Amino acid sequence: MAEIIDTRIEPERAIEKACAVLSDGEPVAIPTETVYGLAADATTPDAISRIYEMKGRPRFNPLICHVCDLAMAEAHVTFDPVSRRLAEAFWPGPLTLILPQRRESTVHTLASAGLDTLGIRMPDGFSRRVIARFGRPLAAPSANTSGKISPTSAAHVQADLGSRLKLILDAGPAAIGLESTIVKVENGRLRLLRPGGLDAAEIEALTGLAIERPEAAGAVIEAPGMLASHYAPGAAVRLDADEVRKGEALIRFGGEALPGEADAAIVLDLSPGGSLREAAANLFDYMKKADASGAATIAFGPIPSEGLGEAIIDRLQRAAAPRG
Ligand code: TXA
Ligand code: MG
């Protein structure tokens, strides 16, 4: 099992140990405000390979590079004016920008899977302090086996990757609980590659641009991680349930009971008070809890589609997609 260091109790030891392990070319699980990441030195091909290996992730799926400040970002990518405004407004935070990689950038091509762009983000929380001390960008996908639910706690990481990992930094439950929103600016157009923890409406409000959404399933895969069947629990998933069938696990939203609940394996409410922010923070943990109940199917009650609901529903549709 991996060593877990609580960053709230031993911040200095956490940073030092993390940097030592990273310098050895080994991945470390780090807490970000979105989900826990599996981080490695983005400039070292062997270290990046270890991420793909540990996750069982296809190598054509590029990784996000995490930076501690704008200066570090500027050493690796070129900002257009719209992307710069987004970075200044929303970093550190749950926003990933896809930007052209600079020729001088030392981020290895394995991190970008050979693309000429980099996905780049300045995370909030303890991980940013680790990057600042390490002094180089960290490539980090979510710290889960490829295709499974992203981890929002150190315990989730330990249960999934603990036997392969050396070190997990524990900063408590992830504040946001959904992966970052990914956008790409092209010729003054703003495209949403993945809905996530930053509400797309906030991006539109800041830039005055209408964000373009990907076509429904089947469109060109621009963020290759967005293949169908992703974020999958072990159980089957049934969406928009208006009643619970015997033995199903139920995850609902908004505090209202559904018919048939008495016969459910477990009933969880993402936010009894109807907060989408709270629902996002609870989503992955509740999916894991429902899975652990042993039910063959997890039924989800209806969830509003505005604001963060867009990203929540996106993850649920992927969880419900036919498994490949
Ligand atoms: O919140 C997050 O974004 C978390 C934390 C750890 O930062 N990371 C995360 O990474 O969700 P991952 O690997 O699970 O998802 C990264 C997504 C993938 O869908 C990948 O295809 C896309 O980012 N991506 C990365 N670089 C890209 C690029 N150059 N062009 C297009 N998509 C890119
Ligand atoms: Mg992931």
From TrEMBL:
Molecular function in Gene Ontology: ATP binding; double-stranded RNA binding; L-threonylcarbamoyladenylate synthase; tRNA binding
Chain positions recorded as L-threonine binding sites: T34, H66, R121, A140, S142, S180
Main location: cytoplasm
Gene3D superfamilies: DHBP synthase (3.90.870.10), Threonylcarbamoyl-AMP synthase, C-terminal domain (3.40.50.11030)
Compartment(s): Cytoplasm
Segment forming the signal sequence: none
UniProt keyword annotations, A-Z: ATP-binding, Cytoplasm, Nucleotide-binding, Nucleotidyltransferase, Transferase, tRNA processing
Enzyme class name: transferase
Pfam families per UniProt: Sua5_C (PF03481), Sua5_yciO_yrdC (PF01300)
EC number annotated for this UniProt entry: 2.7.7.87
Residues in YrdC-like domain copies: 12-198
Keyword Nucleotidyltransferase recorded: yes
A single Gene Ontology CC term: cytoplasm
UniProt: ATP binding residues: R57, N61, T117, S150, R194, Y231
InterPro entries: DHBP_synth_RibB-like_a/b_dom, Sua5-like_dom, Sua5/YwlC_C, Sua5_C, T(6)A37_SUA5, TC-AMP_synthase_SUA5
UniProt key word Nucleotide-binding: yes
Any GO BP annotation: regulation of translational fidelity
Reaction(s) catalysed by this chain's protein: L-threonine + hydrogencarbonate + ATP = L-threonylcarbamoyladenylate + diphosphate + H2O
SUPFAM superfamilies: YrdC/RibB
Record function comment: Required for the formation of a threonylcarbamoyl group on adenosine at position 37 (t(6)A37) in tRNAs that read codons beginning with adenine.
NCBIfam families per UniProt: L-threonylcarbamoyladenylate synthase (TIGR00057)
Protein family: Belongs to the SUA5 family.
The name this protein goes by in its record: Threonylcarbamoyl-AMP synthase
Species of origin: Rhizobium meliloti
